[in-house]
Design goal:
Elements lengths: L1 H37 L1 H21 L7 E7 L4 H12 L3 E6 L5 H6 L5 E8 L2 E8 L4 H15 L20 H32 L1 H6 L5 H29 L9 H25 L3 H19 L11 H7 L3 H14 L8 H25 L1
Parallel strand pairs: 1-2, 1-3
Antiparallel strand pairs: 3-4
């Protein structure tokens, strides 16, 4: 009889502790969610900043070159030269200003009235093109000459070679920027908000009260991360809606894969924020570490703007430890090339491994630093 009552008492204590654990977990989630909702300025910044950045990079900041002011210098006309100039005249990327004399080209370039000049020489029925462009802006000059060569084609003995561009035939820069912006936004928002949230509790002393409560430390951390995970999912939904509607990215069956990989990346970013909170002791330091130290590598070394293949070998090696690099590469394959998940197994595996390692280190370090 005594043993039965003892077992009943122990079982009751376990059930009570489990109930307290669940109640504490729900209380931590509720507390953090209420704080996020009451801080309206942070909510506005968190929800509006991704939209502004996405629209800014999608429309205002563009690597495309439009309305290229072009003139032509033709030594002798033929059907081929007339056909070629007609193609420039009807092309939306060019503002064809007509033919000029050769001596007028340099003054027009110096005065900024034209962006490039196309010299067409005819030799035995074959057109020999020569392009002269304003190289004061190297980026624009490369784009201008590339566009002109795209219209001309590579001449052969019989006819020019036709060139086709896959996945993004219109060469819209917004297609390239959307995955990069998503990679940067989730790192900044998740890392900053998570680190500041936990450090705020440490500064006010409420973290010590939470840790001495019956709720386990791991449950407390998980409870604080869940509201930011939900908020990040809402931001993901808004950004995908804008990308597929306003910016016109092609919608395909890979949307499920995009969401799945993004959720892994969000958890990884939350783990980074948790790791930062174990290192710093003030909200200002957490902001500096999360915003400055993480933002610069994400922009410079993730392939968001600058191709990784063009970087020195040392920087290419450093970029391998930046999570945004692998996320952006995977998103470009899924969103722009519309490939299946099988083509991003490498990137997905690296992100998943990084998530597990960072989450383990963050929780372990948090427990040892409390």
């Amino acid at each position: 009889m005594y043993r039965q009552w003892t077992r009943f008492f122990v079982l009751s204590l376990k059930m009570l502790n489990g109930e307290n654990e669940m109640n504490g977990f729900g209380s931590v989630i509720k507390k953090e969610a209420l704080y996020i909702m009451r801080d309206r300025r942070t909510m506005v910044i968190t929800l509006v900043m991704p939209l502004i950045l996405l629209l800014l990079f999608g429309f205002a900041i563009s690597t495309e070159v439009n309305n290229i002011r072009l003139v032509a210098v033709v030594d002798r006309h033929c059907d081929a030269t007339r056909d070629l100039l007609e193609r420039f005249a009807v092309n939306d990327y060019f503002s064809y200003l007509g033919e000029v004399n050769q001596v007028d080209v340099e003054p027009l370039l110096r005065s900024g009235k034209i962006d490039a000049a196309l010299f067409l020489k005819t030799d035995d029925g074959k057109i020999i093109p020569q392009i002269v462009a304003d190289g004061s802006n190297t980026t624009s000059a490369r784009a201008v000459t590339g566009y002109i060569m795209g219209v001309i084609g590579e001449p052969s003995a019989s006819q020019p070679v036709l060139t086709y561009t896959l996945y993004n035939p219109q060469m819209k820069s917004s297609y390239n920027f959307v995955p990069g912006i998503m990679g940067m936004i989730f790192i900044l928002i998740c890392a900053i908000m998570t680190s500041v949230s936990i450090v705020r509790e440490k500064e006010s002393g409420t973290m010590d009260l939470l840790l001495v409560s019956p709720t386990r430390p791991g449950t407390i951390i998980l409870g604080k991360l869940i509201p930011y995970f939900v908020l990040s999912c809402a931001i993901l939904a808004i950004m995908l809606l804008l990308a597929y509607t306003v910016l016109g990215l092609p919608l395909s069956g890979s949307i499920f894969n995009v969401v799945a990989l993004s959720l892994i990346y969000i958890v990884l970013a939350l783990s980074i924020g948790l790791l930062v909170s174990t290192i710093v002791d003030s909200q200002l330091t957490a902001l500096i570490v999360s915003a400055v130290i993480f933002m610069v590598p994400v922009i410079m070394l993730s392939g968001m703007i600058f191709p990784i293949d063009n970087m020195p070998g040392v920087l290419q090696a450093v970029s391998c430890i930046i999570p945004a690099r692998w996320y952006i590469e995977a998103m470009r394959k899924l969103m722009i090339q519309q490939l299946d998940m099988a083509y991003v197994i490498k990137e997905g595996s690296i992100l998943l491994l990084m998530t597990m390692v960072l989450l383990f280190i963050s929780i372990t370090k948090f427990r040892s630093s409390r």
